[in-house]
């Protein structure tokens, strides 16, 4: 494939993701987050929890930050948002509603034989330090950041 064909493919993905609603062939933002977190977990590229996340954000290792909106401590929210919005780094920030769901996506659970999650631990913040391999979910997430 030549460089122009690769650019055309990337432009087509931008149009699909920017449309908002996920059609049958498209990847929704939640699916993209789930896939990126799974891939980063396999490659030891996740910082889970507030302490590890703040370390990764402060050291500049972070690629993207995913924060739970249901945190009761306002100081936690302000700290993570301030670290993400530093002018030197400008790390993309995504907010999700449920801490248990974020914990399940980040691998803070046990899976039974059927593959359903058991004993899920809630997680307030997850930072992706290493994407792992390139995937369709990663491209969809990057295109979402560019369009936003």
Automatic annotation (TrEMBL):
One GO cellular component term: ribonucleoprotein complex
A GO MF term: structural constituent of ribosome
Residues forming coiled coils: none
Single GO biological process annotation from the record: translation
Domain Ribosomal protein eL8/eL30/eS12/Gadd45 as annotated: residue spans: 32-127
Pfam families: Ribosomal_L7Ae
Keyword rRNA-binding attached: no
Sorted UniProt keywords: Ribonucleoprotein, Ribosomal protein
Domain of life of the organism encoding this protein: Eukaryota
Family note: Belongs to the eukaryotic ribosomal protein eS12 family.
PANTHER family named among the record's database cross-references: 40S RIBOSOMAL PROTEIN S12
Protein name from the UniProt record: 40S ribosomal protein S12
Lineage: Eukaryota, Fungi, Dikarya, Ascomycota, Saccharomycotina
């Amino acid at each position: 494939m030549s460089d122009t064909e690769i650019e055309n493919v990337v432009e087509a993905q931008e149009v699909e993701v920017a449309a908002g609603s996920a059609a049958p062939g498209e990847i929704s933002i939640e699916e993209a987050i789930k896939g990126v977190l799974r891939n980063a977990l396999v490659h030891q590229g996740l910082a889970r929890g507030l302490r590890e996340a703040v370390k990764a954000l402060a050291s500049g290792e972070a690629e993207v930050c995913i924060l739970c909106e249901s945190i009761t401590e306002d100081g936690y929210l302000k700290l993570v948002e301030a670290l993400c919005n530093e002018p030197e780094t400008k790390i993309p920030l995504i907010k999700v509603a449920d801490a248990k769901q974020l914990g399940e996506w980040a691998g803070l659970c046990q899976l039974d034989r059927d593959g359903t999650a058991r004993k899920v631990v809630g997680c307030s913040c997850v930072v992706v330090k290493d994407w792992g391999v390139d995937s369709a979910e990663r491209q969809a997430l990057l295109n979402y950041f560019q369009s936003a």
